[in-house]
Amino acid sequence: MDKNRTEGAVRQAKGSIKEAIGKLTGNKRVEREGTAEKNVGKVQRKAGEAADALREKTR
């Protein structure tokens, strides 16, 4: 499994938590940071999935 896949999933989870904390506290900056981190995690996870798929096809 590609490390980007796991790191992306972790980053996505952290972003979701940060976003929720921002919403609960009314802190828009923390909420936006969490949303951004969550989206970066999604992209990173998808890149890892693509790398895994490519690796499987080249075997």
TrEMBL record:
InterPro entries: CsbD, UPF0337_stress_rsp, YjbJ_sf. Pfam families: CsbD. The lineage of its organism: Bacteria, Pseudomonadati, Pseudomonadota, Gammaproteobacteria, Lysobacterales. Transmembrane segments: none annotated. Belongs to the UPF0337 (CsbD) family. This is CsbD family protein. It comes from Luteibacter sahnii. Residues 4-55 form the CsbD-like domain. Residues 31-59 are annotated as: Disordered.
